[in-house]
Design brief:
Keywords: Membrane, Transmembrane, Transmembrane helix. By secondary structure, this protein is mostly helical. The protein has a single domain, classed as Four Helix Bundle (Hemerythrin (Met), subunit A), CATH 1.20.120.550. About 85% of the residues lie in helices and about 0% in strands. The chain contains four helices and no strands.
């Protein structure tokens, strides 16, 4: 069980990023006077809102990939790739807050980390079945 400590820490970090982005949406609602259930009306608010929503959309794919990779391939490498995802999501949100076009680099980093986790697990499981 001790070998899964690092993927567990990365899981908590990913959830903290998501939680923090949620707080950011609340702050932006007050700042830009966009009260629930409204989600449009100010471009600056909409970027903060979309950064949070897109992270939700991506975390659903990321977390199972992180844990499957950590269990079936390598918990330490899984934690490293997971840490890359967390950094990518922070970069994505930060860039998006500034300007929509500045979100691409962070998105690419996080997406590549997810793909490495996904295909790394698929490859390892396939090799296990073949052997």
């Amino acid at each position: 069980m001790q070998t899964l400590i690092f993927p567990a820490i990365v899981t908590i970090l990913a959830l903290l990023v998501y939680f923090g982005l949620g707080i950011g949406v609340g702050v932006a609602r007050v700042k830009y006077k966009i009260m629930p259930p409204q989600t449009t009306g100010n471009e600056d608010f909409e970027r903060v809102y979309r950064a949070h929503q897109n992270t939700l959309e991506q975390i659903v794919i990321f977390l199972p990939c992180l844990w499957l990779f950590s269990i079936f391939v390598s918990p330490n490498l899984g934690a490293i790739l997971g840490g890359v995802w967390v950094i990518g999501r922070i970069g994505y949100a930060w860039g998006y807050y500034v300007e929509a076009s500045k979100r691409a680099a962070g998105n690419a980093i996080a997406s590549l980390a997810t793909l490495a986790l996904m295909f790394g697990t698929l490859y390892n499981l396939t090799m296990r079945l073949i052997n």
